[in-house]
Specification:
Length: about 475
């Protein structure tokens, strides 16, 4: 770390620290630097992209100047509050620049006191101990001037050359290293010129069988472990657990072992709902927005919550209170390249059908493009997960910590159904509602699920019940 003792130099060089870009996050991984030492930056200019347990976020610099030093290479996980970049805010003033001292990269810190643990967006912030991950490879940082031209070891053991560095995420670099692939020879097909896992496998296909054996990333597997064969004959691939995937695991464990889950199911004829969807698609008032069954299901759940407001609550363990929410921030589970995230529609209960449709469309498109902000993924009260898009009939969804209910929607299929005393082909789906049995008893949970099913069977109840 650079030491600044001279008063003029101290005023001349400003440091930008890793901010808490989410709700209670403790660390973030530097995915990409957009600037290098010597580059001029202006107030508000994006200098890097970082990934937290919630999302990928671009960080703007809050002052003007010339980049003096990048404190961490790409692929490094940095604690909130650590300096990540130093900027000369008075270039050309004639003062000698402070000589950066080679500093050791942070050693693994002892377990932190009990506090807020970063978890998946939409899965709340759990109370747990936090521990820094030990870094692999060299422990001495390369001075900034040399870092621009010298390869340095990142947190996954892959060599990164700073001047002509190919863009790839740490797990992809690890895969390339294990397969003996030089990333400089790989043709990227990912968005923005990023090398994907498929690109690495494609480059590895011509490698002859006598190619050097992959380097083991961890201890050798037990003999009885099942083999996983890759395109070049490797028996397994090890992927570091971090970021969104790590947060998913932690959130699921916390939820499953904290809230007593109960799941109820109902199979319902949604033929009339499907007809309503077709009619709304042709309605001029719905022009420009996407209309699908999820829109009607979301509106049905909002009506059911209005009729049964106690379900929209949270359990406050610290104060031993049930907190009833007088608003609904409706979470929608979305599968993205970074993993599952659950952004939510703020104050969904106040939105008209066209407004809800527009909000759903924007939420899904933003999530798929990887542009969902941490704020959009915080504060959810009730969630919908649509497993039907994968052809799945139903499931037993796990609650998001801090929420009391989650509705799973299964695939809508044409099935034989008794309708008006006769067996006819009808559009049928299965709904599953999981709820926290500490504050939602069987009667309340059943009423909510039955109301949603009744609305989907007879959509006119959207009018008569509101």
């Amino acid at each position: 770390m650079t030491t600044m003792t001279d008063t003029s130099n101290a005023a001349r060089f400003r440091e930008f620290k890793m901010p808490d870009v989410g709700e209670g996050l403790t660390e973030a991984e530097i995915l990409k630097w957009y600037v290098q030492p010597g580059d001029t930056v202006t107030d508000g200019q994006v200098v890097c992209e970082v990934e937290t347990a919630k999302a990928a976020v671009e960080l703007p610099i809050p002052f003007d100047g010339v980049v003096h030093e990048l404190r961490f290479p790409e692929g490094t996980t940095v604690d909130v509050g650590q300096v990540i970049i130093a900027v000369d805010v008075a270039p050309g003033s004639g003062d000698a620049a402070p000589a950066p001292e080679p500093a050791a990269l942070p050693e693994p810190e002892p377990e932190a006191p009990k506090g807020r643990q970063p978890v998946l967006v939409g899965y709340g912030v759990a109370e747990a101990s936090t521990k820094r991950r030990a870094r692999k490879g060299t422990k001495t940082a390369v001075p900034a001037a040399a870092a621009a031209i010298q390869g340095e070891m990142n947190g996954h053991g892959a060599v990164a050359v700073r001047e002509s560095r190919q863009l790839a995420k740490p797990p992809v670099r690890k895969l390339a290293k294990d397969l003996g692939i030089d990333l400089a020879t790989v043709v990227p097909t990912g968005e923005g010129g990023i090398i994907t896992r498929e690109d690495v496998h494609a480059a590895a296909t011509p490698v002859p069988a006598q190619a050097p054996a992959p380097v083991a990333a961890e201890a050798a597997p037990a003999p009885e472990a099942p083999a996983v064969v890759t395109t070049v004959g490797a028996r397994e691939t090890r992927i570091p657990v971090k970021g969104v995937r790590k947060a998913i695991a932690q959130a699921m464990v916390d939820s499953a072992f904290t809230a007593p889950h109960v799941t109820e199911f109902v199979t319902v004829d949604v033929t009339r709902t499907m007809k309503l969807v077709a009619e709304l698609k042709e309605d001029k008032d719905m022009a420009g927005v996407r209309v699908n069954p999820l829109l009607i299901i979301a509106k049905a759940l909002l009506v059911a919550i209005r009729r049964n407001p106690d379900v929209n609550s949270a359990w406050d363990e610290a104060n031993q209170e049930i907190v009833r929410k007088h608003y609904v921030n409706l979470g929608i589970a979305a599968a993205t390249p970074r993993g599952l995230i659950v952004p939510n529609i703020k104050d969904a209960h106040d939105k008209t059908l066209p407004e809800l449709a527009a909000a759903l469309g924007e939420l899904v498109s933003t999530a798929r493009e990887g542009r969902t902000s941490p704020a959009a993924m915080a504060g959810g009260t009730v969630t919908i997960t649509n497993v039907g898009v994968f052809g799945v009939d139903t499931g037993t969804p796990i609650l998001n910590p801090g929420e009391s209910a989650i509705l799973a929607v299964g695939a809508i299929k044409l099935q034989p159904w008794v309708h008006k005393g006769k067996v006819k082909p009808r559009q049928v789906t299965t709904l599953a509602l999981s709820f926290d049995h500490r504050l939602v008893d069987g009667e309340l949970g059943s009423k909510v699920l039955a109301d949603v099913a009744a609305i989907l069977e007879q959509p006119k109840r959207l009018i008569t019940w509101t």
